[in-house]
Design goal:
The chain is an alpha+beta fold. The chain has five helices and eight strands.
Length: about 200
């Protein structure tokens, strides 16, 4: 019995330790400077306007950017026009360790698949066609559809310690050259981008 109690106690302490670490990690976040080079890496509604008939509406864009104690950083961009069924989510992730970047890459795509399966009344089908556009050390491209009608695209890519994620709804390009022209400039900008605290601390 003492052994069982000891194992239970160790498990509880392990869970508490994990929760404490996650809390410390999140509390260690500091504001990240959204520089011009980072903005260039993010695909925004203004970029989409050049390709699609979209009327940008004020106050629908959301930006968030944080840097953590281990040097990792994340940038989130959202544009959600429910009235016009236009949705853009573009995330950038930087991880000092490539192994962590691999995890982030998998989480982005796995999160998309899970959200599409359970997050809507009508499940969204992901039709992966990664041969249409490839980039970096690893990438995935897919069309998104409901009831057989394609109405969105998704893309994730990793190069070294940087991860790019894009989830679009209400916009579709099916030509490989157009897809590349649409996304590639942002990936090239991500390669050049550095991630710095607002205080001016340098980062990669």
């Amino acid at each position: 019995m003492a052994v069982v109690i000891g194992l239970i106690g160790a498990a509880v302490l392990g869970v508490i330790g994990l929760v404490a670490f996650v809390a410390f990690f999140m509390l260690s976040a500091s504001d990240l400077e959204i520089s011009d080079e980072i903005r260039a890496a993010v695909l925004t509604v203004e970029d989409a306007e050049k390709w699609f008939e979209i009327e940008t509406k004020e106050n629908l864009e959301e930006w968030d950017a944080e840097r953590y104690f281990d040097g990792s950083a994340q940038v989130y961009y959202f544009y959600n026009d429910e009235e016009e069924s236009i949705y853009i989510n573009c995330n950038l992730t930087y991880e000092p360790k490539q192994s962590d970047a691999l995890v982030a890459y998998g989480i982005e795509w796995g999160g998309l698949k899970l959200a599409n399966r359970i997050g809507y009344d009508d499940p969204i089908k992901i039709d992966e066609q990664s041969d249409l556009f490839e980039w970096g050390d690893a990438s995935r491209f897919a069309f998104q559809s409901v009831d057989g009608e394609i109405n969105g695209m998704a893309f994730v890519a990793r190069k070294d310690g940087k991860v790019f994620f894009l989830d679009l709804w209400g916009m579709v390009l099916e030509d490989a050259d157009e897809i590349e022209e649409f996304i590639l400039p942002h990936l090239e900008a991500l390669e050049r981008a550095t991630f710095r605290k607002k205080s001016g601390e340098s980062g990669t």
